[in-house]
Each structure stands twice: as structure tokens, then as C-alpha cells.
Amino acid sequence: MHALSQEIRAFSRKGLRKQCTRVTSLTGRTTVETWDGARRVVVEAGPPGRGGSCGFVPDLSLDLRVAVLKPWLLLGSQDAAHDLDTLKKHKVTHILNVAYGVENAFLGDFIYKSISILDLPETNILSYFPECFEFIEQAKAKDGVVLVHCNAGVSRAAAIVIGFLMNSEELSFTSAFSLVKNARPSICPNAGFMEQLRTYQQGKESTKCDNIQDRNGGEWIVLS
């Protein structure tokens, strides 16, 4: 388990730029999250046309689009995760919530796992992979369908799904990213996540080479 408060404090010492996240509660109240040092600041978002504290007009339209990456693996936003008809339409049984401050809507109907991840370039997204991957694999093993979501289904959840496909399907970063991008064009993992995913590929390639070398008694075999 991760000590999120420790991670936040560590980030605050690095002089991060301001980040904003729109969060819609189950009651329909829309707020905007930002950070003041290590303290989370939440302000209520104004109606369309009045602007907002982060210098933009909050998008209050629902995003119920769900990307089907595998018959048992879906990617979407908090809006899809909070819409029962959408969940039933896609036969969802498990929900992996990797947003920060987004509630789980239907605790009696689905199997949930919540992991609070900050959408910051400095967040170590790779450290969350084992926990997330295990939950996804458990859903698959039970013939379930898992929806992975964060707030907008653009950065955190997308990075988790890309990493999972790289791991389970042995895809390169480019192939996994393209697969997810084609299924959900709006994805855009932050720059830090993108760099970590490339590093993740390098680590997997290094491990694969080490395993090949071990199987051949420590001698390299060059295929021509």
C-alpha cells in the first residue's frame, strides 16, 4: 500500500507547477481540485460561461464512452463508472478506480478496488502497477469484465491500461499506446507517465535478455 500523504509531501518540496482536476460527486456537485504546497484545495466550479479558478470553463457534459480493449478490459471516465446503464450495457463486474477523491457509486453491484493516484508527472505510476495488474487479472480469471477509470479516463487510467497490455500481452510501448489511443482517442497520459512507460519497456527488454542468457548458460546467441 502507498502512503499517499508522504508522496504528496515529497512532491511539494520539488516546487511543482499548479495542477487542476475536475471532480463530479454522486450528487452532481462539480468541484475543481488544485494544490497549495502539500495541501489539497477544493473549490466549487462555476457554471459554464463564468470561467473558473484554474482559468478555464469546466466541461460539465457527461463522457459515457467506454473503450473496449479486450472483451474483459475496458477504459473510461468517472462518468461511465457512475452510470449504471452504461456499466450494465458493457457487462461490467469489476471496477478499478485510480482517481483521487472520486467515490464508488454502486458498492452492492460491483467489485471495486480504489487506488488514489495523483495525476502529476512526478507520480511514480510504475509503483502502482503490481496492485492494479493483480486486480485486473483476478477479474479476468473469474470471467469478469473490469472497467479501469480515473477522473477523465485520459491520463492515470490510460497509463495503467497501457502498462497492463505491455505486461500481459508483451506489447511494446508504441504498440500498446496505439491500441489504447485507437480505442479511446482522448487519452493523453502526462509527460511523466509517458517517460515512465518507456522506461518500463526498457526494463522488460533487459529482463528478457537476461532470461535468454540464463537459459543458454550465460552465453549470448546471435541469430542471423
From TrEMBL:
Describe the reaction catalysed, as an equation.
O-phospho-L-seryl-[protein] + H2O = L-seryl-[protein] + phosphate; O-phospho-L-tyrosyl-[protein] + H2O = L-tyrosyl-[protein] + phosphate; O-phospho-L-threonyl-[protein] + H2O = L-threonyl-[protein] + phosphate
Query: What InterPro entries does this protein's entry cite?
Result: Dual-sp_phosphatase_cat-dom, Prot-tyrosine_phosphatase-like, Tyr_Pase_dom, TYR_PHOSPHATASE_DUAL_dom
**Sorted alphabetically, which Pfam families does this protein's record hold?**
DSPc
Q: Per its UniProt entry, which superkingdom is the organism in? A: Eukaryota
Task: Please give the Gene Ontology molecular function terms for this protein.
Answer: JUN kinase phosphatase activity; protein serine/threonine phosphatase activity; protein tyrosine phosphatase activity
* GO CC entries: cytoplasm
Q: Which UniProt keywords apply?
A: Acetylation, Hydrolase, Protein phosphatase
Q: What name has this protein been given in UniProt?
A: Dual specificity protein phosphatase 19
* Source species of the chain: Canis lupus dingo
